[in-house]
Amino acid sequence: MADGLHERDEVRPSIDVVVKIADVLNTTVGYLLGEKNDADAFQDPVMLKRLNNINELPQKERDALLLTIDAFLRDFKTKKAYA
What we know:
Elements: H1 15-24, H2 29-32, H3 36-43, H4 45-56, H5 59-82
């Protein structure tokens, strides 16, 4: 804004605007707000390359891969919770 309202933290975007920005940037609201876990994935060049490669897969293969990843993550979280 020309009057500097953003710089003085007097105007903040609505959550709807932040969600739209995250969608356009193909990221999460958490990443935009500085959540460390999401930020780490984007700072690790190997992880970033993997994420970009996954994003280039055809939708059917991407969905299958994401289901597999989700299963591993679910199992990890379950084991961690009962450890």
